[in-house]
Amino acid sequence: MPTRSVDLFMLCMIYLSLTFSAKLTTTSAMPGGSSGTTDNAATGTTITDNLTDLEMASETNTTTPAPSAPSDLSVQTTSTTANLTWIVPDGDVTGYFIYYGLVSDDELVKVNEVPSPSTSYKVDCLVSNSAYKFAVSSQFADVESERSDVIKANTTLTKPTEIDVQIKSLSNVEIQWTPTDIGGGAMKVENYIIFWSSIFGKENTSVDNTYCSVYTCTFYITADWQPNTEYEVNVAPESLTSVLGDVSDAVYGTTDFGPPSNVTVASSTSSTMNIIWNSPDIGGGARVIEYYQIALDPVDEDGQKSFSTSDDTTQIEISNLSPNTQYTSTVSASVVIDDKVGAGAPSEKAFGWTVPGSPDNVNIEYRKVNTTEVEVKFDEPQNGAMRYESRFVAAHGVEKRFSSINSPIEAFNLKPGETYDVYVRANNSAGYGLDSESQKITMVPLPVVDLKVENVTDNFVSISWNISQDDFKFDSQVVQYTFGNNSKLDVIDNNTFSHKIENLTSGAEYLIEVFTVSNNVRSEPRVVIEVTELLGVLGLRAESQTTASIEVTWEAPPARLNFDNYSITYDPSNTDFTAIIVPAPANSTNITGLNPGTLYKVSITCIGIVESDTMVKYLPTSPCPVEQLEASATSSNSVNVMWEEPAQGGFYGFEVYAVNGSNLIQNITIDTNTTMTTELDDLTPGTKYTVCSEVVFYGVSSRPVCQEDTPTNPAPVTNLLVPPVAEENVVDISWSKPLIGSIDYYAVSFENSKGDIEENTTSKLSYSFNAEYGEKYNVRVLSVFASLNSTEEPATTVISPDSVKELKISQNKNSPSTTLDLAWIKPSGNGDEIQIEYSNSRSSETETANFDDSGSTISIEPGYNYTANVKVISNNLQSETQSVQVNSKPNQPQYVVIVGVNNLILSWEFPNGNYEGFIATCEGQRFYVDKTEKSQTCTGLNPNSQYTVDVNSWITDINGAEETSLVKETSHATGSASPAPANSSVELSSDGKQTPNAITFLLPEDTFTDKNGPVEYYAVYITLADNTDKTTSGPDLTRRDSCQNLGGETKECVSLWYDVRELDTNSRRKRSFDDPVPNPPISFIIGNGSKSISPWNESYINYKLQPNTGYRVSVAAKTSNDEMTATNWSAVISTNLLNTSVAVLVGIIVIVIVVICLVIIGVCICMKRRRKSSDSTSEEEAQYVDVLPMEPRTILLSDFVRSFEKMTPRELMEEYLTLTKVGDEKSRKIADKSCNKNKNRFSDKLPYDETRVQLHPLLGVTGSNYINASHIYGLSRNREYIASQTPLSQTINDFWRMIWEQEVTLIVMLGPPVDKGEMVSEQHWPEQNVPMNMDFLTLQLTTEKVQNSFARRQFKLEKSGKERIIVQFHYHFSLSDDFDETEIPVLMDFIALVRLEVKRKSGNGPLVVHCRNGCGETGTFIALDQISQHIQNKSLSSVLEIVRQLRQDRTCMVESYKQYLLLYKSVKHVSDNPYDIVVNDNRDENEGQAVYQNEPISEYDV
């Protein structure tokens, strides 16, 4: 081949290789469509230069010009993508390259080629909330243009996730989502925008991030949503600069139907109820109401009933109900979706009654006074009634009603003679019921009055009468007359009031009775007895009567007969008679020796040759007067008159009247002989009357019996003026005299609220009295006449309370930030309470104190100026307000100190309450820090030096001065720096005590100092002498090689570590930075075979050295800082030449010394274990290089048990009583708040504020962060346990919220649910496979295994799609005072099983232990668990200190002496029955059951 051809061939090959190399330099595709990191522009230039060289060498020369760069690059970003667009440059373009990267990156990532004509590209898989930069270049053929201008853009915030919509009502929709992960970007989430839309439009609202916790955001939409409508909900984050992040995926929710309205019980019977309602608003949804559900619930009974309509009708009739029962009814609309019933919102409750049944067996009986009163008796219906009502309906429609709560019903004021239809009804509380069947009754009509004989002959008798009332009802009248056994009657209409009885037998005695008749019911009869005349004398009558005589007169017969005498007979009984002879012509005689009040039959016959017809008259004697007449005033215009019936004789009625002077004021006729009392009305008040009563018998009155000077009550005073409220304690009252009548004086009385009464009399019309402040008085003024009082004119006056005196306010000495003390002098008089209103610039609260208190303590917020207004309240009146001002001390921030070598960083949390800023102090330096800042750095400090620091908040007090929080200075040391350089003026030197295998050298005094912090360790480095490059410098401190291979691969190594932390420093002078303390001289032996431990817990052996070999040594010092400083290498120190005989002798000596040392060490160890304190060691011991590790302070288990067995019960009791006051000083204010009291099972078992478990608060629910549970200090970490009371029914949700929030995976429940027949605790978990829903949590029991002494349950707890497995161990026996000691082995097995489960569980959640009160049994279990850990960890176990620490965390832990004794006896049980737990990691189906193996344990295991 010609030479030129070869050259061209070589040039072409070079060109191809360069081109291929350029292709290879571009990196492979990067994530998200981006490509490698090589700058293609530079590569392109190189290729072009090579081509130019080739063109110069080649005969065929071609040049491709570079295209122009694209322009107008723009970008639109989301959280993970960027959409780039640009304008095509001038000229030809075959494609584009995309460049992008973080703003902080130096180089941009190059994306694979984008073919033309596309002018856009999407970069994905970007990091959200990050700043990026972008550029684009164009390409033509293989030539790339320059890049466009770089443009910067931020990716947005990521979209929220796990959106959940809970529609609780149309105006309460709960939205939950997981907060946006902001990554590492600069943008923060300022707000979230919630979007919701429906067919009715779109709406949104902005929610700030205060509604978010670390894991969950929760917000409640209170806007009114349309019923039966599907809503779409999205959530997007928004930054502080109003940049909207990615919108979440949509979630959907459909609102329920609205509630039906106007639910009404339209009608009801005793067993049915007809309910109607209006249809609800169905909104804009497609669902229609398919039927309604009705819930009917008896108010006073159990047993709710449910009914449903067959379609969307808006009424229902419900049957088979109980009579006379009140029911509540609610109606909800229902729809069936996917074979599931969806119910709308229930309506408001409607109340309705069923009607009681009707009464049976109605019977009407007349009362004693039978003209106007009856009793209605009946059988009560089933379920009774609220009230029974009888209706009396007259024929003309007038109706009377009477009622009673049971049978019988008394009816009165009925119309005599009226016929009534009677109905009885049993009514419910609404007044509805059913009538019984009608019963008829006719009232007895009134009798006639004033019946008298108008005329009598020998064959007829004429009578007349009147009726007592013009309007009483009767149908007819009957006159019945009887002679012997012969009786006849005449019926007379109801308008005739006289009658002539004819065709009578002459001289016969007739019993004449007159009745009124109504509906065949007769009235009581009115009776006269009359005898028809015989022809004889005329006009026989009584001229006058006394109680023992009747003077009779007569007229001679019309035709004088020839007779000499009259024969007069008289008798009271118609059987025996007495006759007297009166000679003619006399026409009168006085019949004596008669009985009072007796009707006598008096007969007179003319006696001559023949007897005339006998004339007969019935004449009465005068009745005896009344006995024991008494009259007394009953009111100001009436007098009650009472008497006893006459001592003997008959009577038919009484006349009662009152006389004032000669005026008859009132007269009452009583037409019955059974009434012995009456009222005289219409009398004048304050007047004395003569009251009389006369007995009436057959129209004849007795002598009057009278009581003189009978007064009526006086009239009351008028115009009584009493001030309703009196500002001062002197009260003036006045009045006017009565309008009528007389008075003697006035009686005035004042009764206070205690029942104390002050009474006085006066003749004036006014009165003043001294009253007590704050008292209420009932004032009465009475008129008095004849020792009688008028009616009361009561009035009330209230005296304003007195104000407190010398009111003072101050900060509480113990709690000046949260408590203010008020003091005052008690006001005079009385009061209900003292009201304290205290306020700051943003809130106001009111508290009350007892009236007898002289001060009060109020809880306030820190850092506010407070105004306290104090006033006395009595009878709803207020005293004058007393005001004082003071500020509360601001709260001190809780701060931590971050220690640096030359600085201390004070970092704190914002305290609660008000503050204007912070003051940070560092050893006298004072820094004012803005209230928005949370840290201050104190710089320029010396290393490992003690400084006093403090952080305080401050405010401007009410006087304009600076008020700071309580000063609580703490002392902190800066960190240690690496040790100061070794003193170059001193050298390490041998002390001449070399052996063939060891050398000894001295670290001189003042080689190192503690200027930069105390030296904790010395490391002794060694190297061979022939390592000549080590003559001046020190060792390589980055290496810590062992000396095992010294001389081989290892050139220098660490022979031993010397721990100087345990050296006695008590006698050393105090270190300072400017005057550091030097090290003492220390002698080191290298090569003695001892062991040492490095600061990093590495084990080193001080290997023997080679005989007759030169070594160099260096000592490195280490402070708490991990850096070390070393001396230079020493001069050569050589081991001795090995002497065999000497070596043997030395070996023997060494063996003896080692044995002696071992004995001494053993004795020392025993002594250490029996010493009470091991805080210091002697200086000589501190100088040993091979210092043994410090043993933990322990006590032999056997010694522990022997000590316990020697204790008397009294000594053990006294030890237990030292715990009585532990924790008493701790605050329990949160647990004692009114909103939390119902969450505590016992009022004296409350958690301390400082250790209580705090729940995440629920929005708008006061006290929702409280639960009766406490964090308990453990052996492995501070919050190893939670001690809690077993949940109440109202705290079950709170308990499982605590389990979730505290990440608990293991629960121990102690004691049975029922103990001694008493329900100890409610079951707070569901039955197996029956989920229990609680707010945002769902709990399900998955497995349950029950054994004799305990049960093991496994639960699945879910929230927002996340779930956890919770294990519960339930110990069946109570650890109370009656615990059976024989159960100790079972108890200890149970505790070991729980501890095994704790070790197996992953996660950091605490162990929850709970019993009834969360103290006694819970404390006993935790104490035994800690004792068991002590035994397993071979450390000191102090029962007293364990219980003391428990009580520092929660009150009353290990509540009783017997529980305390149980702790000791359990330790003794472990001593007598030693065993250990062996874990079988190969679990079988009985997961959680520990496998035990009895093994003896060491005496040092306690």
Q: Which structural category do the helix and sheet elements fall into?
A: mainly beta
CATH superfamily of the largest domain: Protein tyrosine phosphatase superfamily
What number is the mean pLDDT? 83
- The helix content, as a percent range, equals 10-25%
CATH architecture of the largest domain: Alpha-Beta Complex
Large-scale geometry: elongated
Distance between the termini: 99 Å
Count of distinct strands: 103
Region (Disordered): 968-991
Signal peptide: 1-21
Subcellular location: Membrane
Main location: membrane
Q: Would you kindly provide a written description of the structure presented here, covering whatever features stand out?
A:
With 1502 residues, the protein is mostly beta strands. The protein has 11 domains: 3-154, Sandwich (Immunoglobulin-like); 161-254, Sandwich (Immunoglobulin-like); 261-353, Immunoglobulin-like (Sandwich), CATH 2.60.40; 360-442, Immunoglobulin-like (Sandwich), CATH 2.60.40.10; 448-620, Immunoglobulins (Immunoglobulin-like), CATH 2.60.40.10; 627-711, Immunoglobulin-like (Sandwich), CATH 2.60.40.10; 718-799, Immunoglobulin-like; 805-887, Immunoglobulins (Immunoglobulin-like); and more. Helix content is 11%, strand content 41%. It contains 11 helices and 103 strands. Strand 41 and strand 42 form a beta hairpin. The longest helix is centred in the last third of the chain and has 31 residues, at 1140-1170. Residues 1-61, 1064-1069, 1168-1194 and 1476-1502 have low confidence and may be disordered.
